[in-house]
Predict the structure.
Amino acid sequence: MEIPNAQFFMNGGAALLLGLSVGLERERSAHEERHVPFAGIRTFPIASLSGFLCATLEGSALLVAGLLAVAALAVASHLRAGKDGHPGVTSEAAFVLTFLLGAGCARGLVLQSASVALVLTTLLAGREQLRGFAKQLPERDLAAAIKFGVISLIILPLIPDRPLGRGWWAVNLYTTWLMVVLMSGMGFAGYILTRIVGARAGTGLAGLVGGLVSSTAVTLTFSRRSRETPELSLPCTVAILAACTVLWGRVLIEAAVVNPEFGLALAPPAVAIFTVSALLAAFVYRRAAATSPEQTGTVEYTNPVELRPAITFAFLFAGVTILFRVALAKWGSTGAYAAAFLSGLHEMDAITLSMASMTKAGTVPMHQGCAAVLLAAASNTLVKLGIAAVLGSALTRRSVATALGIVLACTAGVMAFVLWA
């Protein structure tokens, strides 16, 4: 493979720098642990430059031979280190990878190799933090990560990407399970965030984080808490409003991931409602800060990555899609909006993903898809208002009713603008 001189020296310099970065970290780590390193600030750059030259010269046999030689050095070092009481293979594995980083630079993959080198040095430097995290990681969180891997990496590729059934009842199982992966991923991210901030957090923070997992669960939890401890009524209201606010961020992410055009169309009305809801939450927060002592709320969330809920959501997504399709064909826009309203009584995710998918396929116009999501949001807000009215304290009932009433009015106005603009 012929490389111009300038390109040769640029890529070779990149390989040298990547090897130096890994070698510097290994040298520093060995100095802290007070033992002789297998390879340090000189050997790692040599390995990287070796990979660079092997990949530069014509033919793949030399590259394979170089890789085998580097691997043999790593194995020999591991065997010797085991006798000396250092049985770890981290440095040896990093040594082999550094050789490949140099080879990547020779093939023009400088940015990709630099990205891998950054991840490598981060993993090497963060050894103590990663070990501490692993020791403190609850078994249920590890199980959640494994289950998410099963849902996304094992089950999804096995599902055929073609519609089953005909007409209104046609369902693409691959698309349906892809929505499950998206929902499980977002729920898992929110769940991990709750584990990071802790089950006990300030009520406002608990509401914000909880809205990523389940705004309905936040409403249930803090409505009950306000009745049990009436002096926390305003802080509990803040948590409920914060969860209802951050819900719109989740809706926009879902819409944009499935259909970016639909996400852009939904963004103006969603941002408008988000802004009104955020201002109301901020107003109640100021009142709570002035009249209530700093308090914490406890919210526990179940693991969102389970096969049974995933399958349930798959049926729900397919059901909402079919219901909306049939209602639109049988009764026109009125039937479609009725289906969206009924879907929102349960949750927002299925109708949002369904509308994003259907607008992408061209079966539903953009303005109608946006209006359906807004109508579902209105019915979902009514459910949360009802939960607070039944379970909350008197002050929480009044505060939530006033705030969510304003949000509902804003939603109705925005939806009217979307339909008739």
User: Anything to note?
Assistant: Residues 139-420 form one domain. The chain has two domains: 5-133, 139-420.
